[in-house]
Amino acid sequence: MHMVGYRYLVFILLFIVSSCAQVGVITGGGQDVSAPKPIKKKVFPANGTTNFKGTHIEMPFNEFFKLNNPANNIVMVPPHAKINTTFKGKTLRLDWTDTLQKNTTYAIYLNRAVRDLNEANDSIIQYVFSTGDILDSLSYRLQVKNAWTSKPVAKIMVVLRDKFTQKLVSFSSTNSKGYAEMNFLRAGEYTVSVFQDLNADMVYQDHEPVAFSQNDQIVLLKSSVDSVPYRLYTPVLEPKITHKTFIGPNAFIVAANRSLLNAQFTINDEPIESDKQIYHTADSVQLFWNTAGTTKAEITIQNALFSDTLSLRYSENTTNTPLRLNSKIRSNIYAPSDTVGFVLNDLIQSIDTALIHVQNLEDSTFLHNYSFSIYKNKLFFFFDKTDLSRLLIEFSPSAVRSLKDSLSSAYYTVTLAPDHKYGSIDLNLSYYESPIVLKTFKDGVFTQEVFINVPSESFKLSELIPGKYTFIVVEDRNGNKKWDVGNYTARKQPETLAVFSTPINVRANWEVAVELIPAE
Question: Which structural domains are found in the chain, ordered by start?
């Protein structure tokens, strides 16, 4: 056995707002390069004009366009005038009749109001002028990242309001790198709102993905950029069924956005006992019920977190779906510690061992010294694997019987892989002092999840198929064995996690030592 050592570092995000000086310039949204853009040299008066005395602006664009709800999507800040819009060819005209205040910096925002004719591409465009001698010159910049993946998120609304009056001061939208910047600001105290504006009203709604700092407030005395990204998450919504489906001949799968553990289920007023329930996860359950003579099911669900009723219709043909037996492991390749098993698409009522034959393909002999067990819709085989490498398991007709039918003939070639075909990773988790959820990915695909109550210096992942492995570690301080999203009302941030994205190469018959330490 070989050993290779790694020290594995990634960033953990701290959830406080801090800033450092940096001047930023807005670019008119910049998220979609194919959106119509103003021709800067032809805008009249020019963007950034001081001592502005007019009542209209002409804004030529680089392509023909159409307007998207200009009455709501074109606004002046401060809101001292109502803007009217007209356009001819590629030129947009904005005008107003109200009198503007003296010595004031104004910004006119075109919030996805100008779209191209074909693809409806749009952006946020800002035009600024001052009725006095100077423009307000401060800027504020922040970045938004996905709380789970730590990747930048585009097209997230950032709204700046006066802390005391809550009047709109400025807004922007994040670009492809997750950055949003607001310019031409004056010194003052502001509140910051960061959310995915699903209904385009610039007001946060409870169901919209959101990110926040500790108090959502900033004191702007100079141009600044927040050094800690905002972490965007989707709030937990009201309890509801998120998925329902029927799988012939007798199975119903129900999933929800809450735990369904310890729920009471009925189908057409018939209670479904625990021996006819299979939980795939805490919020996803498979129910078995004899569908003979029915084409509709009324399912009720009730526990401390949930109470709902749903209907499912299905055809008689679906209820007559033939029985299928699938290997517990899709590849039919079993590691040394794996139990050879099969899954039926119905509950198993009985098996006839006289109709099941297990053959050693290396010498064509038949195995007789084995045992088996049944658990709901699963059948497991137990035998001494010593000197075994390939088996043929054959089921004759009626070897397996379910609620309403029997299995036709089926056979499977099973490979029992030796230990030296696999590698392992010896994880040092001593950095973590509270429970964690360890998620493992092979070549970018999720493979397993482990809850570790008391992390220690050594935790081994064994029987790993050779490949490149990465990890996500959730600091599960409340020990509920899952990642908890944030709570905006309670000012509770999403649980801290670390994404260890540098691949660890696992080779057959090798053990790799890895110390998971988030980078400071």
Answer: 19-227 (2.60.40.3710), 241-319 (2.60.40.10), 325-417 (2.60.40.1220), 422-519 (2.60.40.1120)
